């Protein structure tokens, strides 16, 4: 729980591990995830390290597993995921794993090669079957076409291209009539991809000068490409020609277009006999292919049962050897030396893990764990759970806390959803948001197991507890504003009463009630009186003043809390001089000016009442803004006749005193620290180093429970030039003084977005939903159903999602800039321990 408010205390440790026990010890530390190892061989590249061969073996095993996984996914075989987390195998088990993977890969590759060869033969026979089936049609068509042309004495006018095609036709006719004479035509038959047919025809006609005759027909069913497994569409063709020269040219063109040529007999009887043989071979190949596929599936199903565990084992082995490559060898070459950052509270747990690793390896020499002194900045480690993790991620998005710096996350758990709800105050919209988050929280485990590959969904799911609190707080502020989908709820009735008759009320829309006579002089039990919902004349005026003052009050208190938290940092880091020279002038400046303005608001609310006499009647109430501006300018506020410019006696004197003291805080902040540093240097004392953080450390030899001696502070850095000190302090002072004004004004976004959200919700109701309530006939129900669906979609899409995102971003800015800038530097780096869980999660994310 302590690390929730401040990061864990870290220490740098030195490990001495026997070579035979190092693997098992690192494996145990990987299961714990509590040690961040340092690279003791920074000058060595990856190929010069001791365990580079073992890492290569792991890479090779991982490659084989990826190949198996690819084949399993290609066949659509479900992978068994039992959720088990097997321990890292011992080094001697690597040989068995390598043999298993080698056997599976070799067997699967042989099966794939055989299947590809069989599919290639099956494709060839299938194409030959289609050629033999179309061949007779082509021969009959050519003969019939040639005879028909000769009988008609074909003499029509043709273009150049048609004339040359006709010559090819007559050549075919003459060859067909000549029979076995010298003019007999030759032909080739084959199969080509369908999309290549047009280019194939043009190339044949141009290259052979029209002296060939081509006939083609499409194959109805697509064929499977044996190399890729894709379905392709092909066409059968036969090319008739005369002479060996044309034959050679035609064959080269077919090869260029990657057409497959097949033998085809000239006589019909031979083609029929050949077709029967082809059908018989196709049936035999189909049987063999089925048996091959069944064997392949059995191999993959067996591998699918264990591939998840195999991946886990190989990745753990690889991570261990990567970590061992960070270690250094001692002079005897029998001991490995490591350095790692570990949390002080977990030293005993780490010691026990090292002992388990030593026992597992069978080593007789116990490991040695020494705490070291270090002037290096330790990493920042905040323990989180599934609830606090989202809020901690918001803080880390701005910057990782410096070591042992105050952690804003526990306060953000309350302030973040509350400030969001101030801008998003609607009970109905908050209810929708809360229900969505509650669904993600209740279905947490099954939703996490699905591993949905959507970045937006993962953002929502990771921040489910933030959204849940934002929805709950929005429901609360919605009740405070008495706003439910832009409508009010009349729970306690109204404390206002109308003293006019009905005709006066209905005829005068600008009529306003007098709080001195028309209101019961008692506070409303909870939230706003519902009568304000029907107040057309001054509803906006009332809500505007109310929400603006509320936002200023919340903002000033939020900033004061941030300044107060800086004292915790100064006290912990023993910067007592910063308390005097930084915190005290800062808090005085903020309280004497801006908190005084907040007090004036409460004084005004409690002093001026509707039934009070003239000096304290609402008519005489001075403007807070004008009063504050004149207070800073030392001017008197204008007053009305019979009224006072001040709310209480002695206010003018008090205000002048507060402004003078606040202005004196500016040179206090500007010159105090630099002058103190100059005095410290002149008196030869150790100069103040505001960036120094004391780190506790000590030495330990196996006994964690022994007293840990404190380590003296790290030596200060080189002296900073005094000119730079003055410049930095001037920048810091100007930033704080001007920031106090701008940050206070920045909290007015709470008022602006709250009014905008309420008005947008009201406009959506009046322009959309109200139209669905105007019909009273039977079709009014159908129309209302359509209008309600449209209104619901706009409500969720615009008011909940878009407005919610806008309020979220504004809330984030208020925390990062206005709140955290008062005490949070965010200059640290995160603790990244050697953890199998983190490594496996990263690998799983990369695969998805």
Nutshell version of this structure?
With 848 residues, this protein is α+β, with helices and mostly antiparallel strands.
Helix and strand topology:
Layout: H1 2-5, E1 10-18, H2 19-32, E2 36-37, H3 52-74, H4 93-152, H5 160-178, E3 186-193, H6 197-207, E4 213-218, E5 223-224, E6 231-232, E7 234-241, H7 244-256, E8 260-262, H8 268-304, H9 307-324, E9 328-329, E10 335-343, H10 347-361, E11 368-372, H11 389-398, H12 409-423, H13 427-442, H14 444-450, H15 455-462, H16 464-481, H17 502-507, H18 539-572, H19 576-607, H20 624-633, H21 651-682, H22 722-746, H23 749-767, H24 779-819, H25 836-847
Radius of gyration: 43 Å
CATH architecture of the domain at 134-295: 2-Layer Sandwich
Instruction: Output the structural class.
Output: alpha+beta
Mean of residue pLDDT? 85
Helical coverage, percent range: 55-70%
Helices, by number, come to 25
Please report the total strand number as a whole number. 11
So what's the CATH class of the domain at 134-295?
Alpha Beta
Bulk shape: flat
Point out poorly predicted stretches: 144-182, 686-718
CATH topology of the domain at 134-295: Alpha-Beta Plaits
Main pleated sheet: 5 strands, antiparallel
| Distance linking N and C termini | 35 Å
Beta-strand content estimate:
5-15%
């Amino acid at each position: 729980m302590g690390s929730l408010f401040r990061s864990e205390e870290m220490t740098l440790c030195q490990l001495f591990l026997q070579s035979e026990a190092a693997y098992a010890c690192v494996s145990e530390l990987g299961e714990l995830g509590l040690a961040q190892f340092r690279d003791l061989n920074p000058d060595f590249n990856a190929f010069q390290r001791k365990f580079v061969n073992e890492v290569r073996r792991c890479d090779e095993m991982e490659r084989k597993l990826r190949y198996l996984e690819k084949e399993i996914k290609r066949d659509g075989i479900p992978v068994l995921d039992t959720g088990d987390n097997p321990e890292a195998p011992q080094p001697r088990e690597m040989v068995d794993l390598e043999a298993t993977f080698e056997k599976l890969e070799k067997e699967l590759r042989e099966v794939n090669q055989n299947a590809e060869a069989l599919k290639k033969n099956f494709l060839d026979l299938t194409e030959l079957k289609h050629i033999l089936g179309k061949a007779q049609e082509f021969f009959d068509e050519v003969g019939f076409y040639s005879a028909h042309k000769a009988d008609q004495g074909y003499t029509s006018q043709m273009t150049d291209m048609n004339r040359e095609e006709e010559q090819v036709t007559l050549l075919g006719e003459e060859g067909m009539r000549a029979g076995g004479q010298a003019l007999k035509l030759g032909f080739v038959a084959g199969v080509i991809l369908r999309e290549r047919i047009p280019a194939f025809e043009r190339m044949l006609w141009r290259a052979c000068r029209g002296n060939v005759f081509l006939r083609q027909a499409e194959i109805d069913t697509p064929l499977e490409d044996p190399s890729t497994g894709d379905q392709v569409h092909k066409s059968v063709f036969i090319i008739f020609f005369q002479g060996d020269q044309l034959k050679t040219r035609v064959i080269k063109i077919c090869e260029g277009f990657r057409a497959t040529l097949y033998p085809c007999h000239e006589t019909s009887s031979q083609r029929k006999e050949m077709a029967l043989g082809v059908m018989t071979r196709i049936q035999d190949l189909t049987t063999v292919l089925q048996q091959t596929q069944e064997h392949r599936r059995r191999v993959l199903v067996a591998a699918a049962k264990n591939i998840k565990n195999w991946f886990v084992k190989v990745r753990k082995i690889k991570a261990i050897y990567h970590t061992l490559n960070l270690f250094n060898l001692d002079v005897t070459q029998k001991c490995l030396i490591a350095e790692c950052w570990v949390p002080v509270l977990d030293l005993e747990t780490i010691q026990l893990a090292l002992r388990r690793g030593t026992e597992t390896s069978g080593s007789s020499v116990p490991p040695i764990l020494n705490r070291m002194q270090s002037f290096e900045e330790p990493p920042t480690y905040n323990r989180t759970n599934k609830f606090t993790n989202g809020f901690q991620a918001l803080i880390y998005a701005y910057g990782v806390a410096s070591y042992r710096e105050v952690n804003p996350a526990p306060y953000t758990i309350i302030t973040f959803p509350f400030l969001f709800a101030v801008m998003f105050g609607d009970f109905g919209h908050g209810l929708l948001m809360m229900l969505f988050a509650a669904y993600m929280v209740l279905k947490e485990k099954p939703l996490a197991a699905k591993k949905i590959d959507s970045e937006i969904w993962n953002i929502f799911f990771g921040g489910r507890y933030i959204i849940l609190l934002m929805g709950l707080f929005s429901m609360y502020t919605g009740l405070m504003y008495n706003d439910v989908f832009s409508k009010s709820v009349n729970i306690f009735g109204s404390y206002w009463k109308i003293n006019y008759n009905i005709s006066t009320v209905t005829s005068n829309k600008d009529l306003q009630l007098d709080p001195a006579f028309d209101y019961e002089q008692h506070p409303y039990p909870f939230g706003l009186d519902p009568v304000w919902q029907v107040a057309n004349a001054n509803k906006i005026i009332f809500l505007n003043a109310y929400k603006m003052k509320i936002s200023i009050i919340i903002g000033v208190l939020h900033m004061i809390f941030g300044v107060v938290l800086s004292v915790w940092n100064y006290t912990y880091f023993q910067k007592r001089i910063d308390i005097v020279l930084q915190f005290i002038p800062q808090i005085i400046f903020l309280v004497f000016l801006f908190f005084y303005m907040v007090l004036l608001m409460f004084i005004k609310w409690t002093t001026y009442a509707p039934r009070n006499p003239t000096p304290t009647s609402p008519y005489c109430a001075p403007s807070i803004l004008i009063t504050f501006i004149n207070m800073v300018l030392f001017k008197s506020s204008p007053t009305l006749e019979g009224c006072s410019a001040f709310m209480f006696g002695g206010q003018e004197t008090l205000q002048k005193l507060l402004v003078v003291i606040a202005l004196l805080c500016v040179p206090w902040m500007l010159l105090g620290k630099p002058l103190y540093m100059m005095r410290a240097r002149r008196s030869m004392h150790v100069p103040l180093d505001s960036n120094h953080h004391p780190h506790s450390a000590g030495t330990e030899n196996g006994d964690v429970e022994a007293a840990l001696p404190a380590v003296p502070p790290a030596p200060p850095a080189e002296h900073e030039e005094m000119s730079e000190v003055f410049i930095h302090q001037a920048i810091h002072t100007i930033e704080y003084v001007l920031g106090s004004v701008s940050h206070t004004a920045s909290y007015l976004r709470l008022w602006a977005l709250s009014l905008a959200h309420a008005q947008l919700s009201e406009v959506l109701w009046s322009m959309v939903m109200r139209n669905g309530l105007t019909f009273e006939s039977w079709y009014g129900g159908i129309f209302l159903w359509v209008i309600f669906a449209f209104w619901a979609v706009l409500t969720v899409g615009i008011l909940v999602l878009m407005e919610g995102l806008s309020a979220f971003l504004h809330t984030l800015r208020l925390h990062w800039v206005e709140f955290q800038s008062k005490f949070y530097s965010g200059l640290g780096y995160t603790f990244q321990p050697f953890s199998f869980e983190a490594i496996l999660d990263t690998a799983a994310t990369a695969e998805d």
